[in-house]
């Protein structure tokens, strides 16, 4: 009996010691990505990152398919995934539900026609060049947003665009549709299903680079203030030693991620913290109801 008690106490002490050192018991890593593109494309583009993390951690790494921005937020908050690549606004939503969620890395964006090089991008209001002359010509027309939780495809336009036109976005346009992603919003504009679209400047540059549009296909009628680019975040339950290894794998060995960076039109990965995204908290606060 004494031996059993001693062994139990030994195991408990070992568990406490390992926890204090931040060691982890999990055997795999799960990653989720907001669906800015089709999931097939995202899965293919992220394979170099999956391999880099798997080699560095010595464990399987899996990209978890996601159908919406909200599903990725739910996954990181619930602990269903260990890392998520979120938009700035979806990170703030996750942070509001679990302040332990921690941004740790973001991409440095390459220079594009619509986006300056650096850490920031913008929300754009695009319209077909031959159909419009200025913002006011879109009053009462059809507009596409991407996803309700998209930073540049919904949150920032709803917060900043009304200052341009003097009324809420939903009152200015005749109809508003959520396309589901930036690419689907751009496709809807190309196909004439909508008269304008709010999209990320980075995705507009990607369409230009791929030859889907020319520089004069769309007219930029409005730009948001600069937005710090999308963060990779840790779940609140991920242990300290894994966080340290993941940071090192992504920030200190970027040469092995050149293929992934090229697929994202990025030149590198930089460390970030909550401070870069805190300004979004103000615009995402619920608006007071009129009496």
Share of helical residues: 25-40%
Strand content: 15-25%
Structural class: alpha/beta
Q: Give me the number of helical elements.
A: 13
User: Biggest sheet, open or closed, and with what strands and sense?
Assistant: 6 strands, mixed
Strand order of the largest sheet: 2-1-3-12-4-13
Distance between the termini: 71 Å
CATH level-two architecture of the largest domain: 3-Layer(aba) Sandwich
Number of separate domains: 2
Stretches where pLDDT is under 50 for at least 5 consecutive residues are 3-22
Structure summary, number of beta strands: 13
Give a description of the structure.
- Helix content is 40%, strand content 20%.
- The strands form three sheets. Strands 2-1-3-12-4-13 form a six-stranded mixed beta sheet, sandwiched between helices. A five-stranded mixed beta sheet has the order 8-7-9-6-10. Strands 5-11 form a two-stranded antiparallel sheet.
- The N terminus is likely disordered.
- It has two domains: 143 residues, Periplasmic binding protein-like II (D-Maltodextrin-Binding Protein, domain 2), CATH 3.40.190.10; 103 residues, 3-Layer(aba) Sandwich (D-Maltodextrin-Binding Protein, domain 2).
- The longest helix is centred in the first third of the chain and has 19 residues.
- It is an alpha/beta fold and 291 residues long.
- The chain starts with a helix and ends in an 8-residue tail after the last helix.
- Helix 3 crosses helix 11.
